Amino acid sequence: MTKYIFITGGVVSGLGKGIAAASLGLILKSRGLKVVNQKFDPYLNIDPGTMNPIQHGEVFVTDDGAETDLDLGHYERFTDATLSQSSNTTAGRVYLSVLNNEREGKYHGGTVQVIPNVTEEIKRRMLLSTQETGADVIITEIGGTAGDIESLPFIECIRELKYELGEENCCYIHLTLVPFMKKANEIKTKPTQHSVKELQQLGIQPNILMLRTEIEIPEATKEKLALFCNVDTDCVIQNLNAKSIYEVPLNMEKEGLGNAVCKILGITGRETHLEKWAEMVHVFENPKHHVKIALVGKYVELHDAYLSVVESLIHAGIANESEVEIDWVDSEKITDDASAKEKLAGADGIIVPGGFGSRGIEGMILTAKYARTNKVPYMGICLGMQILVIEYARNVLGWTDANSTEINPDTTHPVIDLMPDQNGKILGGTLRLGKFECAVTPGTLTEKAYGSTTIWERHRHRYEFNNKYRDELKKAGLIIAGVNPERDLVEVCEVPDHPWMVAGQFHPEFKSRPDKAGPLFRDFITASLKNKI
Ligand code: GLN
């Protein structure tokens, strides 16, 4: 029988519910259980694909092309799972199904209501992963905060599911904030008590309280919370601010999270094994080297907009026993060669990640020029590859107005252009999404990095390298290091006579893991360390 864990949040948002869910996934996986994490978001967008990254953070992409919440990235990185379309559901997607059913007459003339029609659809989706994966444990994170109007149907569903699936198969975890009042030198439990009351009113009695805190919570306080919230004392788990997110599973296991969950779900005879993970965290926290990477982009005011890129740089640092310091550079601030030099001179390596729209593009092109002419290691991701190609076309071939038609539809040299099957009219879900094969050219830096001539990486873009200009760019030296065999699309470009200037049309950041850094990130950091010496 599959076991179900539901994680809700209370008091405030942004407590790291995603990290907590991912950490629990890792703990249970290390006990030999097959674990799947999933997230239910109460907002009305069908998926986060059309949301502004500055507002919502990065859009994480799965192998099968789902555009999802960034918490799925945490799940994959912690549990090394490959998640799918069914791993992230929004209220918008639920309502869309219900309304389509209504139009198709599937409710046979009945009145369509939140309860039971919307809740049935949510519950159906909550159980989909069980059917698809046959997991031992499904961890479901409910987005938002308990008491939000929009999350009510989701809370009602997890209440009903406990009734339907059996008490012994369900565990509710509630994550709250225990604030520390500096002046009074006191930690406060009242917000947690109120939040639990809120849940109780909705029919949910949490089994485990997870308390986000900046100082150690005394035993007496845990006992008090256990008493007031009807929870066993060993089920009050402190979630102390950690040095890094990768420490969180270690800390929470020390607090007894694995045992508490297994006790509630009747899972016996299993021990947590986080030794390898602990070794990785040790390497991460005791680096031998230091490297400074300029991340040049247009969404730099919200670092979460580049979350997986940042994590991948950390993984690449671990693989190189190096601390990676990120210098966040707003590409709009680079307006000529002089400002490029001023902003980038201190960097050992430069990365230009993905992005959409025309703002800040010229600054990125100047960045690629700086990296190419000063032989500074450069890694381009998606838009970062398109930028590399535009810069090469402009400054090596002399096509001064070369551009992507996304930026300048009237350019005389559209080196990056729409594919004929992209009409660009419907924005949601119409990008080239998910994993595609790439045949890697032997003898390239890309082949060296992957140690293979066939790779699969995930994509999220609309525009492509324009094959009309491929021969001329190649003649001028540009190395085509990877091509999608099915459609002959250029996937990776490298610049010759340069220590390491490599860019892919795909997003290698989605498959990087803390103990298995994405190969391009790893070699980019190696090259940047060499550049420093
Ligand atoms: N805007 C570009 C495109 O749609 C690049 C996308 C990206 O960087 N993810 O092709």
Concise structural overview:
With 533 residues, the protein is α/β, with parallel strands linked by helices.
Q: How many helical stretches?
A: 18
CATH topology term of the largest domain: Rossmann fold
User: Low-confidence runs (pLDDT<50, min 5 residues)?
Assistant: none
> What percent strand?
15-25%
Distance between the termini: 56 Å
Tell me how many strands there are. 23
**Cα shape:** globular
The CATH superfamily of the largest domain bears the name Class I glutamine amidotransferase (GATase) domain
In the CATH hierarchy, what is the architecture of the largest domain at level 2? 3-Layer(aba) Sandwich
Report on this structure.
The protein is of the alpha/beta class. The chain folds into 2 domains: 209 residues, 3-Layer(aba) Sandwich (Rossmann fold), CATH 3.40.50; 244 residues, Class I glutamine amidotransferase (GATase) domain (Rossmann fold), CATH 3.40.50. 37% of the residues lie in helices and 22% in strands. The protein has 18 helices and 23 strands. The strands form 5 sheets. A 9-stranded mixed beta sheet has the order 13-12-14-15-23-22-21-18-19, sandwiched between helices. It has a 7-stranded parallel beta sheet with strand order 5-2-6-1-7-10-11, with helices on both faces. A hairpin with a 4-residue loop joins strand 8 and strand 9. Helix 1 runs parallel beside helix 3, helix 1 crosses helix 9 and helix 13 packs across helix 14. The longest helix has 20 residues. The model has no long low-confidence stretch (mean pLDDT 95). It binds glutamine (GLN).
